[in-house]
Amino acid sequence: MAARLLRRTLRATEVAPRFLSASYGLVQRAAYASGGIFDVGQPTPQSHPELLADGEITPGISKEEYISRRKKLLEVLPEKSLAIIASADQQMMTDVVPYPFRQNGDYLYITGCMQPGGVAVLSEETGLCMFMPDTDKEDVVWQGQTAGVDAAVEFFKADKAFPLSHMQKILPEMIERSKGVYHNVKTSSSSYKNLDAFRRASLNNKVKDLTCYTDELRWIKSKSEIKLMRESASIVSQSLLQTMLLSRTHREESQLAAKIEYECKMRGAQRMAFHPVVGGGANASVIHYSRNDRKIKTGDLLLMDVGCEYHGYLSDLTRTWPPCGRFSPAQEELYSLILETNKECIKLCKPGTSINEIHNHSVKMLIKGFQELGILEKGKSIQYNYLNPTAIGHSLGMDIHDSVTLPKDKPLEPGVVITIEPGVYIPPAPILNESAPTRYRGMGIRIEDEVLITEDGHELLTASVPKEISHLTTLMSMGSEPAADGLELRAACS
Q: Which PANTHER family does this UniProt record tie to the protein (predicted)?
């Protein structure tokens, strides 16, 4: 025990060596020490040993894996290419109040840096070159320490690093020497786009989108990534189950939105993957409902679409249930169709099939079911899109819709994570050409699961959350816990 404590103390007090830039001489060292620990503006194995093991840059992902990702990207890019990847910008709520920051997926995937303001450049000639934000003492007072050039080399394992203020002197020459410049078009930064060299390259058709290459790399998850995604799915599954139990007595959408966020963060999630969808009754028929400001009426179904982020990896899960513990006959009929479609589509998840194939199967099942229920007229299947305009699922990873540039007919492979989420959305009053019997009006039902493709089939990452009708009604009817207003649960559901 004493020896282990001594080793930890020695690691915590190590001072990282100085970094000499190959081109620009000595880089001035910043005062990164905080209580004897090298502070890079985010958790490290020394500052947060409970989160990171030795050799990890972010929790669960080693420096070797980050270096391997960079090598793979260079291997798939054309010869003499230059990849430019900007970090996300810090968005401001007011002039001095920032929104919570979330890093750009490609920048985090390549560098491991979770802070705003940087630009990463990758080429065969230079390896990884990171341009880090210039930080003054006043910034540190208000915002805390951030990573600089020292951290870029010593912690993030960049081959070269410079202050961002030097980029206009260094990057143009790198652009001129390259045959092609690749960057993420949707998340590009004016810090390099305004350079004359970049503009000239763009006019000469040398500038192309990098996303198709990074999306390909991010399509199949490593063992380390899968472990993080399993944990993210586990966190949101446990949290939703607790929220479902609370819905028996607390019927405000806002309260349930607060509950799911609380439960996720108490279990280790850093943030929600997106603003929770908490739709009671007709609100569930709005696919991306976000107001969460109504009270759920007795007899209404509740749809919750939620996800959380666990060290850069996201989860995505939807359940629909009756908080009072009983489905009406019409609700049960429609729910049974969506559940059957969910289960049959999950069976199709295996190597070699594609999201498109699974989607087409779901459309056939739902059209047939809608026609049998009288929701969709025979011979008018084009009206199906008014009932369900969404795809059956999407790739999931560091972003909710991950690897979006890849074709939907790309065969699934072991290590890919997708969602399966059939649904139906019937507004209280007809919209456009949609028509449905009155008893189905104002219903929205979606059942979404996360599926990991394995060598011989699939693994359901969200299997622990009930979705069978019998399981949901039993769960909602357990006990007689007092309601918020002091009435018994059974009385609240009557």
A: XAA-PRO AMINOPEPTIDASE 3
